[in-house]
Amino acid sequence: MSDEQGFSVREQRAALTLASIFGMRMLGLFMIMPVFALYGTDLIGFSPLWVGICIGAYGLTQSLLQIPAGWLSDRIGRKPVIYGGLVLFALGSGVAALSESVYGVAAGRALQGCGAIAAAILALAADVTREEHRTKAMAIIGVCIGISFAVAMVAGPLLASVAGLSGVFWVTALLALLAMLLVYFGLPGGNIRGQIRDVTAAPELFGRLLKDRQLLRLDFGILLLHMTLTAVFVAFPLSLLDAGLAAGHHWWLYLPALLLSFVLIIPFLILGARRNMNKVLFQGSILVMMTALVLMAVGQGQLWLLALAMVLYFTAFNFMEASLPAFLSMLAPAGAKGTAMGIYSTSQFLGAFLGGICGGVLYQQLGGTGVFLLVAMTMAVWFWVAAGMANVSQVRSHILPISGNMEDSVVTEQLLQRLMALPGVQEALVIPEEKAAYLKVDANLFELDQARRLVNL
Known about the structure:
Blueprint: H1 9-30, H2 36-39, H3 48-76, H4 78-98, H5 102-114, H6 118-127, H7 131-186, H8 206-209, H9 213-242, H10 251-275, H11 278-298, H12 303-331, H13 337-386, E1 395-401, H14 409-421, E2 425-431, E3 436-442, H15 448-455
């Protein structure tokens, strides 16, 4: 059992429960990706364009509602928003399961996306964990999302081969119901602290962050990464079918490719952190993804080439998916990480929608080879954009609760000046209404205990 100075049992339980809720929802969204092009052929109106729309439809509604849902959780509470989002997700799954046309499936997927609970989950994670352990809670949630993607690539083909496309959607509805039970039985009361700027968006910061070129590079990157993902899975399952791998056996390729990719990225993540090579390795991963896409294009009908391409693709995807949020955390101004993450997440889901549309249009006009080659060309654009990225590795953010009266503006200004004078502090922001100080620091120079003593004087 963890003591109260460490990551307490209560905090661990809350983090694992929230991660499970998030993971179940993402599992339901991802499972359709590797199977819809294969098992949706009997639906009225089926076409490559509608394959892309159905795969990516959730991204449009998710991108529109992500930030508003986070604001709503600040006002009415985290749990009501999470419950409401899961209800919408379950209803959307049911609509898709009962639909006999691609139009109904697209409507169901869009309704699934309306259950935009990511911001509320992250805010509740911040509510129920102390600042010094919040990073651990967020890391647990991030790992669970990665696991859900891996499980979806295997579970989707397996479920579809047994229960068909509607069976996949019914399972996603069941996952939403199970997630609601976890909310009820597994989460604490959820004492709301109002806005916590490291996890929720502040409207007054949008203009400033949308002018920040470093953050815009990351937003553009995550948009392209998820645009590529949905576009690839409009075409890749059909390429496997043409290469002789039966639809029910596609997981035979996805499972080892994913496992191998997870093994391959570990040394690169360690190397990037220890040798300050994040930028070089990130640009290298863009080139690896471009190579994978070209191999998909030239490997039509050759299963071994498609398998190699998928290993390279998953390796690059998983490395960039892990790296981009870390870069954002290091580059976001003090007290603006929640807003920066809101813009970033909106870009991510918008990319999923655009990828579905583009993948469907390209496949309809040019076939799978055209999809892979044109998407590979976008990697060249991304490589050029990423050339201007800052190479950061030791920047950290901290939120310090302030004791004492903060109504006097002179006292607030004096505290801000003292914080800025501490070794390693790059930016500081004191918010009297929240009785909190937000710091952006160089981890090699900053001493957290010294800052805590200062804010508790």
